[in-house]
Amino acid sequence: MLFHLRQLNPRLLLGLPLLLSMGCTEASLNDTNDPSGQTEPPFEGTTTTIDQMDDLERADSGILEEVRVAEHDGYERVVFEFRDRRPAYRVDYLDRPAQACGSGFDMDTAGDQVLKVSFAPASAFEDIDGERRKTVDDTELRPNLAVLQEMVETCDHHGGVSWALGTAEQVPFRVLELKDPGRLVIDLRSPSL
Q1: What is the pTM of this model?
Q2: How far is it, in rounded angstroms, from Cα 87 to Cα 64?
């Protein structure tokens, strides 16, 4: 329905600037636009381990469906999206190279630091008509951003999924848990902050 401004009640026009400004924020919890209108908390970040694997017996199993990266003003964002629910997780900087879970071999990643992201119980495959199929197409991403250089899946085995994020340096990160669908968001602070 189309209205002309002169047809509206003048009292309604007083609230028009407020209505136009609602939901028009650049900061959102999603890596694009968040329809919920929630805004992000201030970026404090940490370089210490965030471990939410305390109660694996009660954790929901998650099937990883998408991994994406976006550059924002002041930070770089990685989103791990799961079908339905997000599993338990652990995020920590390693003091050694990331290792492949099956072989134990070191995995080279671009950058001087490695931020490891682990999920359990989780998988990045599903069985369809007796065939095992990956649910994530790209298991190696090279965004070549200021901080995030490369991302590599290091494990999808025995109920666990892990990724190694090769970063240019050890920068503070924050973790956000989102629902519907289940997502884990990791923001890496840009060096400019």
Answers
A1: 0.77
A2: 9
Q: Which residues contact 96 (CB under 8 A, 6 or more apart)?
A: 106
Is residue 181 reached through a cis peptide bond, with omega within 30 degrees of 0 on the bond before it? yes
Cis, bond preceding 121 (omega within 30 deg of 0): yes
Give 112-159 pLDDT, tens digit per residue: 999 999 999 999 988 888 888 899 989 999 999 999 999 999 999 888
Q: Higher-confidence residue: 24 or 123?
A: 123
**Local structure of residue 80 (DSSP, 8 states):** E
Tell how strand 62-72 and strand 122-123 pair up. parallel
Rounded-to-integer distance, Cα 136 and Cα 153, Å:
10
Separation of alpha carbons 170 and 149, rounded Å: 12
Tell me the CATH number of domain 46-189, given options 2.60.40.3500, 3.40.50.10800, 2.60.40.10, 3.30.1300.10: 2.60.40.3500
Rounded CA gap, 147 and 171, in Å? 8
pLDDT tens across 68-110, in order?
999 999 999 999 999 988 999 999 999 999 999 888 899 999 9
